[in-house]
Amino acid sequence: MLKKSTQRILSIYFAGMILLHGFVFVQSWANVAIGMPDFTIFYSAGHILRSGQASNLYDDNLQQRMQTSLNPAGVRKRGSILPYNHPAFEAVLFAPLASFSYLTAYRVWLLTNLTLLMGIPFLLRKQLPILGTAPLGFWFLGMFAYFPIFMALLQGQDSILLLFTYCCAYAALYEKKQLRMGGWLGFGLFKFHLILPFISSMVWLWSRKLLTGFIAVAASAIAVGIWVCGIRGTLRYPHFIWAAEHNKSYMWNGGFYNTANLHGLIGVFLPMSQYWLFRYILVVSSVLVLVAASMVWRKTNSAGQPDGPLAFAVALIATVLVSYHIFVYDWSILLLAIVLLVESLLSRDSLIQKVRTPVCMCLATLFFSPIYMVLILRYQRMELMASVLLFLFLTLLVGVARSGKLI
Prior knowledge:
The chain is mostly helical. It has one domain (4-402). Helices cover 68% and strands 0% of the residues. It is built from 19 helices and no strands. It has helices at residues 4-33, 39-50, 60-70, 72-78, 88-94, 102-124, 136-144, 147-155, 159-174, 178-187, 196-201, 208-245, 262-267, 275-302, 309-322, 334-346, 356-366, 369-378, 385-402. It starts with a helix and ends in a 5-residue tail after the last helix. The relative contact order is 0.11.
């Protein structure tokens, strides 16, 4: 258990980080008011559904017209629209918000995200014998002190919903409810690039119940998408995604900068003339990362602890590393990985104790907001933070390997 003196010191530190976040929020409010945040994509998608044009949800021209009419100042300042590039079934969640003004809808979604965040401690306390005994105030300070969470709130992103989904999946795994776990992972497919790698890493835990829950919810999500957009509109989605990823007019396609994963980290160190080499290294390294994560699942499973927090945390880190498209707010899901690693450290898990010091250093870096602010707001080089995450992943593998063979 964390000593009260340690909790007090950490609480003061967390409060300091939150004050920094508050300063950034105040400075950013003028941009929020004109529709600069990513919430714009959900709001415009909701309007497209409410206007009866859902079958053309993935039409560039319609999205351009809709977003320009709703947030003209934001589009002008940004220089382009922010296209809705998520699955159609998620747009259903935002259709009710389209009945409000932009700022009102933004505030409602912000309140929804805050509610989800504050529900996480109640969801996980039973699954965390040590951290679960910490005061709720300490939990809340820690969550709001994590910069990716702050950015997800500021941008009005759906990353906190995915974090909550992962927390529900972990709770189900801990309670050995694999059908329910698979269902929660299936629901998380609104960010499929942050779910499919996780499922792949769990190959040693696949069971009929897990796959049934996942496939059932995934099929239901696809059915909702077809109901919303029709078959033709749904079939346009893959082409739209591919085109959006290569459209240089969109602000996120300015290169590998701020892409905080292997994709960004490898890309910035290789010249574009060697793109074939980049793709080769990326594919090979991604496969190796997922295989290594699956070996950790196998290790904990063979040790009789498939619900161990360490394997889940390693799989989450691997998922972020191999994801193709990611930004700082998507690192919100790593909050669960951090919590599970701290729980493993406090419980003196033999799989992690031999690398305790470097793991603690990595976790401290991930909770140091100024480094995010400098890399993102000043230099636009968030991809460099992926090196910390990769180092943490390799360190955890070393810890597991030292406690016994991975294979």
